[in-house]
Amino acid sequence: MGHLGFSYVGLIYLLLLFIPNLVWARHMPPGYSVREEKRILKGFEKVGQVLITSCALIFSDFNLRPFSPWSLWLVLSFLSMVIYEACWLRYFKRPTLPAMYAPLGLIPVPLASLPVLAFLLLGIYGKVIWLVLAALILGIGHIGIHIQHFQTLKRQ
To answer: Where are the transmembrane segments (predicted)?
Structure first.
């Protein structure tokens, strides 16, 4: 269920999430628009963002513990965040809409999929169902919106 307390790991994850997004917000690619986003997806995304931020910070279960086989969940989660950061670097080298939505191998819309996966795996590592549910809610909205943008871009 989760133990209340500050999570420095959650804070690190949120910084890894927010910093490139803040840079992106100052340098959005030409042609980016939120006008056609479905309201239901926006709602899921916003609720998921609030829940992810809250859960990541208030449950101490995400903090480092002695290594065990269960720690592989944290390793996979962190690997997802590292790949997410690499995708941002790829995007910032060529900040265009196609680059923003370009798949990474078999991973569709990695700038939307990877952080959701990272928080989902972090929730599993911490055994905090609330973060797992928050990641699923965020995933419905955030990944859904990015897939919608990608499909619109392909039609153009």
So the answer is: 6-25, 70-89, 101-122, 128-147
pTM score, two decimals? 0.95
Placement of tokens 């999929």 in the chain = 113
Give the domain ranges of the chain: 8-26+35-155
Q: Beta-carbon neighbour count of residue 29 at 10 Å?
A: 15
Report the Cα–Cα distance between both ends of the chain, in Å, rounded.
46
> Which residues, 6 or more positions from 123, have their beta carbon under 8 angstroms from its beta carbon?
55, 129, 130, 131, 132, 133, 134, 135
Q: Which residue has the tokens 């995933």?
A: 139
Contact 56, 128 (CB under 8 A): no
- Contact of 81 with 136, CB cutoff 8 Å: no
Tens digits of residue pLDDT in 94-109: 999 999 999 999 999 9
Decide: 57 and 6 in contact? Cβ < 8 Å: yes
